[in-house]
Fold each of these.
Amino acid sequence: MTYKSVNPYDGKVLKTFEELTDKQLEMALETAATCFETWRHTTFAERAAVVAKAAAIMHARVDEFARPVTLEMGKLFDEARGEVVLSADIIDYYAKNAERFLAPQHLKPSSGEAEVESTPFGVLFGVEPWNFPYYQLARFAAPNLMAGNVVMVKHAGCVPQCAIAFEKLWLEAGAPAGAYTNLFISYDQVNRVIDDPRIKGVALTGSVEAGKIVAGRAGQSLKKSTMELGGSDAFIVLEDADLDKTVKWAVWGKMNNTGQCCVAAKRFIVVEELADRFLDKFQTALAALKPGDPMDKATTLGPLSTEAALVKLLDQVKRAVAKGATLVMGGKRIDRPGAFMEPTILADIKPGDPAFREEFFGPVALFFRVKNEDEAVALANDSEFGLGGSVFTKDVARGKRVASRVDTGMMFVNHPTWTTPDLPFGGIKNSGYGRELSSMGIQEFVNKKLVRVASIDAPA
Ligand code: NAP
């Protein structure tokens, strides 16, 4: 059973869901395609009324939406509440700004008139991950619905209650049937949906492995895709950083969502003058985290999303140590029920080690000591990933210079990589291509159509 709600805090199965039959899938595709034919002709104001209502519903019922997030994938309840608010803010942002972002662009040709219109592609298909069960959906659905597209989504198997809650949200907000469709489907059916001529664009957020498969499939039928994939963000600490502030951000950047963020700080690269003191304080702060029920406010360390995720991460740490990495702290399962792992720091990882190239998706920090800024930049860039990254220094101009030298899609100075509705999000290299959020995210699946008015006679 792929779509299964299991509480990672105690391993209890909460609910299971049947996959769609091929006939049900066909009906869903047809409903979406039919819906597009009317939705595409609605005005921005009509679409904004529905989209703003969806945002208002989420804002009004934060706890109700947050509960299944905590129950299905173990996010601390306060963080789950924060995710609901962020998702609602994204939805509202596009309700308010989409018309401006997609306004016809008037060109200044040497003669006559020309403008570029933005028109919707049609039915889009998204494949989404469990780590931010609403936020990921919001940043795909909201801009595209406002652009006049309709969307179908295959969500991750472990968060089916969130998937259903998000689909219901749109119906309650007044969206027509087929504007937003949740699909409980198998990987085979995913392939068939991508191939289906009614689907005009494909977006995936997830691992590099899934990205290659889904992007490859979309490419076979020349469908545009966007890929938001994994990352191994560098967290660079220069010798002039404010140590106390930096350590606090290091803990947040590593442990937010129990380290299960594509843009979690994963590689801590510290200039040697500060390295020992940073490591000491970082270790003390991580050791103070309190495992427990993620619904309980006193808990500061939740479980991983699933037992399988825990087993995979423990094995990754074991392999890293077998290849020579030093276990500075942690590395084991916490002796209690549920998918809990000790906060972990690994050091002495060499460029030739597999761990140097891998993404550790959970409470595992890789620690590197470097001589200076140049070495920090070189190490940060020695990665197949290029999602986010951060640099900590009291000298903001220096921070910006370092940020410009790191090859990623996003760099932050004095803050770990993070997201707001109005900032573009996405990566380069194996972290994918395309952007979500901001004015850029809404441009990915619209036709930039030139309309030219000329008044010259054809050559004789
Ligand atoms: P994942 O295994 O790739 O799963 C993501 C989605 O892809 C799920 O819906 C999954 O379905 C589906 N999927 C996986 N393999 C597939 C296949 N062969 N055919 C069709 N669908 C397939 O990723 P994950 O482990 O759940 O999520 C963590 C990864 O996502 C990390 O690498 C993280 O960095 C990345 N991520 C990136 C961003 C970003 O914006 N760049 C944001 C969040 C997460 P099932 O659940 O049914 O397997």
Note: The pocket of NAP is lined by residues 2, 127-131, 154-157, 187, 190, 205-207, 210, 213-214, 228-231, 262, 359, 361, 387, 427, 431-432 (CB under 6 Å).
Amino acid sequence: MKRPIIAGNWKMNMNNAETKKLIEEMAPLVADAKCEVVVCVPFTSIDTARKALRGTKIKLGAQNVHWAPKGAFTGEISADMLKELKVRYVIIGHSERRQYFGETDESVNARLKAALGAGLKAIVCIGETLAEREAGQTKDVVTRQLCGALEGIEKRDLKSIVIAYEPVWAIGTGKTATPLEANDTIRVIRKALRKLYDRTAAKAMRIQYGGSMNAKNASELMAMPEIDGGLIGGASLKAEDFAKVVNY
Ligand code: PGA
């Protein structure tokens, strides 16, 4: 059985004091979680989060990583730097990075290789925009993004990768894909994985849904056979809401 994974994506929220408080509130509420629990915090809160997470079941994550080991890349953070701070997971290719910071399938692939090379686990985000969905391009877009992200990635490394299917139109909008829609698109993603690798690898891959997933809709989404977890934005910023998702 695959272990479901629920990850909070705090985005550009939570200073150090808020990080400590939120983790202290959240940790007891998710102490009996059956799934794997991760919080992906801002770079500046990583050290505080690491300390606050000690002795809890929650794992530490970051929200981006650069592809180069070091050098003249002002403002960027390397995989080894994250590793040094005991970060376990890193989100790569979030749609906000694709939309506002010029992230491409190629840069996602390069970041993924750097993360894996440093021994980090990655949550790789893919998903179509509203325009792409309305143009009937959802399958093509997620397949292209998936293949681009995984270019040159060996089968043995797949165990360190989680895919997050996040329809862009559902992120932060309160609009969720229906469980059936999410399940259908994730099935497409799994089919693409089968083509890229094989049936066993596709089956073993954990694929999350993300986009306005919250305390109310989590159990319905998690009941779908293809959905192996959630990437939670807004609802991960309140301990009780996040705990309700984790304890779906
Ligand atoms: P949301 O964000 O839950 O606020 O829609 C999800 C995400 O962007 O990962």
Note: The longest helix spans residues 179-196.
Amino acid sequence: MSYKKSWAEPYKIKMVELIKMTTRKDRLKAIKVAGYNTFLLRSEDVYIDLLTDSGTNAMSDIQWGAFMTGDEAYAGSKSFFKMEAAIQKYYGYKYIIPTHQGRGAENILSKVLIKNGDIIPGNMYFTTTRLHQELAGGIFKDVIIEEAHDPLNEHPFKGNVDIQKLHQLVQEYGSAKIPYISVATNVNMAGGQPISMANLRELYAYTRQHGIRIIHDMTRVAENAYFIQKRETGYAHKSIAEIVKEICSYTDGATMSAKKDALVNIGGFLATNEWDVYEEARNLVVVYEGLHTYGGLAGRDMEAIAIGIQESLDDNHQHARVGQVEYLGHKMMEYGIPIVKPIGGHGIFVDAKSFLPHLTQDQYPAQALAAEIYLDSGVRAMERGVVSAGRNENGDNYYPNLELVRLTIPRRVYTQAHMDVVAESVASVFQKRKTIKGLKMVYEPKYLRFFQARFEKL
Ligand code: F0G
């Protein structure tokens, strides 16, 4: 037996950010003012912020150093060419369009590829991705394997596409109606669950036969590669960088939120291997984001992304990154807290349906639980259930099987002791779970309601 199991970080701390400590009384006031929506809290009222891993990463000293070298030219910025070269080198895509963040790329891509009434299959939805598909006239269809909808199923690749489900769509609508399938790596809404290389390879072969593109939501591709390295036969001796490059090689283009894997606070891009798609997207980016050599980003942001991409592919970095998430997950399991399994790449997803079995989904169990965790300790999580799922084109609520609270871990930000505090806090809420009441929605925005909806206690 080896004692050497540590996932300890391959970096040390050079600067710290002080956090304000609050009392339960302060937090009670804050969560009421926020309408029981953790998105509406002020961050200064939060102790450990696990709302999201998006844009909340700590940059390295090398990234901060590069900030000073950003070329802020309006056109033809040197920093753009560095970012473009990094994307081409590490991901292998040909044509690159920078955008201010992932959804900027989703907007442009959807407008370029989707015609009214088109069908867009995907391995589970993501909120902004599906909305842009719908706003462009598309209809989203979930083709993820059934196991992904079961929080307890321990399938090692719950992000896999069910090719039979895709085939049924092709038979029903015809491949001409399906401009692309949207394939996310490390599927966020399923709990940070990976897709296997074998599944991707099979999907690639299938889509070649039917003339359907694969558009890769590569927001967390390096985390997916880590799981392939650990779980898939034949990959144990390949580097994360090699695995990422292979994943991208089975896809035709990508949208990326660099705010996650790529270790920056803002940025994204659209990538494609097709000249025509690039041409059209380059026309549109000027309308929505900015010139095609900055797309809403400062030169310094593009410098930091170029370096962040490279740092994200370091095997030791991913080992520590996912290791920390697994540490928290195991700790919570020891307390008997029901979480999505296997433990995902970017956070722990608490199963609110089994945590609060006395609440119906219309009483927003995950929303109520996130508010309760904040109240207990100042740890901020977010709802990923019926509120996030929103409504379909007829205005009916989607009722996702997964009703989850996501405790998302920013990269390189918190310590193991912080993870202990989080686990202890959720455990203390778990102890008094029977006393937790549901919520009713008193304000519902039209789009992406989870961001700004307000609630009252039942
Ligand atoms: N795709 C995935 C899988 C995402 O997780 C996100 C963002 C986006 C696209 C959109 O990118 O935010 O840069 O516009 N997810 C964040 C989250 C918001 O908290 O999970 P964006």
Note: The radius of gyration is 21 Å.
Amino acid sequence: MTFSLHGLAVARGIAIGRAVVIAGSRTEVRHYFIQPEQVPDELARAQRARDAVAHELQRLSDELPADAPAELAALLDVHLMLLQDEVLSHGIDQWIVERRYNAEWALVTQLEQVARQFDEMDDPYLRERKADLEQIVDRILRHMRGQACPAALQGRTSAGASDSSDTLILVAQDLSPADMLQFKRSVFAGFITSVGGKTSHTAIVARSMDIPAVVGARQAHQLIRQDDWLIVDGDAGIVLVDPSPAMLEEYRFRQRQVALERERLARLRHAPALTMDGQNIELLANIEQPTDAASAVQAGADGVGLFRSEFLFMGRDGQLPDEQEQYQAYLAAVEGMQGRPLTIRTIDIGADKPLERHGRDVILNPALGLRAIRWSLAEPSMFRVQLRAVLRAASHGPVKLMFPMMAHRHEILQTLALVEQARQELQQRGQPYGAVQLGAMIEVPAAALMVDVFLQYFDFVSLGTNDLIQYTLAIDRADEEVAHLYDPLHPAVLQLIAQVIAAAQARGKSVSVCGEMAGDPSMTRLLLGLGLRSFSMHPAQLLTIKQEVLRADTRKLAPWAQQVLVANDPEAQLHASS
Ligand code: PEP
Ligand code: MG
């Protein structure tokens, strides 16, 4: 039966393929594809974990005191029976062999299949056995932990690992940014999540992968079943489940059109980004990993305006990279940029990018908590490790250093003092380091309002509009329930952006936008009209924005942008001709 789900369009294009559903409640387990030669080991690993649990349950049963309630013994028997049921073990093995899922993924996928069967049973006693099955799966998962295959520990997902000739589309309740990263360069042709906002970090990584994605498609992970045929319309934010042949044909036609449009845009790669009135516009890339530098160069970026360094720290089971490892990563990015400037943003963990090591389980307002520079200043020795690694990499090519989420003058002073201390430490060691320009992200309204203070201390500023919108409007950027209120064109947001651009220009300092607004073609003319000359975005968006730049005339856009700024309804004004 065909049905459609509506969510938020986060990454453009059309994907058609079969669903790979990640069980909703256990998204924290590792999901990755294994290599064909790893299949026997993975099967053995799954078997060992099952055997260990069987052994554990048997021992518990044997050691039950004579006066233990009879129900307890019966319950252990039920658990043993469920564990030894062939449906579970065969299913797990099948996912490993046929789809090359890692053992944990195979286990939770099979749990989901069997759990659905339990849900459909009429007998309430049998229906309740689902909870027992879940407990067994949790036990097996505990045994699997600590014996993951090495590929998982390196967070590697091999491209083309799946045997299936079908295109695959990943469906999950939610995916952490670390999970998304693991799926980067994997076999998936599209992503769907049930929760999430347009500028959540999961959406950002999906966009950087340049494959169609829809987030906030409520209950998608429950309504879509393994292997369902899906169409993901990343432009409209729509998912079609079990589409008719006529629908498939229409969307295949649209897919071809998208491909043709891309080919056309590719011709702009070597064209200079000049407006019609001759203004040179800097187009920079946002990257998450050193290897992304290649796609930045490939897209024709003038440099990297935002390297989100926190992705080096995530998904590592709490093992933070040491100075040498970080240095190697930054060096790889410097080399990858082949002489173009690389802006490394210091670690921005917290909010929707938690670090496993973080300690406290429940943080009431994570976006307002110990995030970004606050965390770095609370862990100064860790922060200096990162600063030293960046300074060392800067001796190999042009590097800029940028700090996230600053709001206070004392944070500026503390940060600059730590940079100085890191330099001195390198000097004492006799280790070479390079000169770096220092910049601040303006992403808290307080920073935008006192941007002059920031401009006194820093060489450049970059507007983090994703957070600036979130904090100005008090809208959680990752929450699909309030996504309709997350408005980049809110007059208060526009005024803050305009003020920051004007203040930086008045002081002759460079200012960029590195939030998602910079890669949104419907915003390009407005930002140019407000005086912005530097945009940083996902490499995949670069040529679309260049096309907007080539069509723009800033002499006409400047007075029009001032009208948008004072309009009661900036959105309507934006669509009025400039
Ligand atoms: C921003 O907030 O706009 C930004 C670029 O940083 P991040 O999205 O990583 O929070
Ligand atoms: Mg931010």
Note: DSSP finds 23 helices and 16 strands in the chain.
